[in-house]
Design brief:
The chain is an alpha/beta fold and about 280 residues long. It has twelve helices and seven strands. Helix 10 links the parallel strand 4 and strand 5. Helix 5 packs across helix 6 and helix 6 packs parallel to helix 9. The protein binds magnesium ion. The site of magnesium ion has 7 residues, from loops.
Length: about 280
Amino acid sequence: MASAKLLAAFLAALAALLAAGGGAGARELRLEMPSAAEMIVDDGMPLIHMLRPLLGSGGRLGLRARVPCDSWRFAVETNSLRDWRTIPARCERYVGNYMMGGHYRSDSRAVIDEAIAYAEGLQLAGEGKEVWVFDIDETTLSNLPYYAKHGFGVEPYNRTLFTAYVMDASAPALPETKRLYDRLLALGIKPVILTGRREDKREATAKNLAAAGYAGYEKLLLKPQDVRVHAVEFKSGERKKLEDAGYVIVGNIGDQWSDLLGAPEGARTFKLPDPMYYIG
Ligand SMILES: [Mg+2]
């Protein structure tokens, strides 16, 4: 009987704790038990925990399709998964939901907030030599209007169709990057735009950048028309030329690891999300 009383007291205390102590924070997390069907994991791996947060475009879509598309995205974003040509077909809805929903924008915001905080803390030499290197596609400009019509990366890259889109010069700015760009200009750090787009797209690219609100950059560097080099080699080579010309690369931002790898990388690098395609 004593143990029953003890149990009742414990349950009452627990109920009171849940009623009062959980607070707004706990309710916002919206933790709930997965259903029995959802708990069947067909890869034989044991569950690590029973609760999962229902936030953004994460768990539920992945579980519904019985594939961890969020895990695939993690491997992509950490550069663990390389040389892939298309996103897994089963992840088209997941990636589409991620890109079109708030998750992509909030991931971008987290990166940009940190980049701005870093830039604001820099001590400039006062000679106007500090530059920040920006990539274009999925960095200054967003090609979501194109990719939304082409399966968010589930279709193989189509040079003809994508070139037509680029020549249309209609891509919107990625608003988070634009915020960083404007802040850097105000701080006196000069943007240098460095892209794997080739010289035959210079006019359309400059027109698109202007239409998207990007003005006052120091340089717009495109890949020479007939040179066959990988992105890492081309972009690190161009950064080396900048340093040799006396510029100090205080920051470097892009959506691909090939924007950021290869010395000189820049004093600090910032990786924006991009689960739609891979450029090595
Ligand atoms: Mg890019």
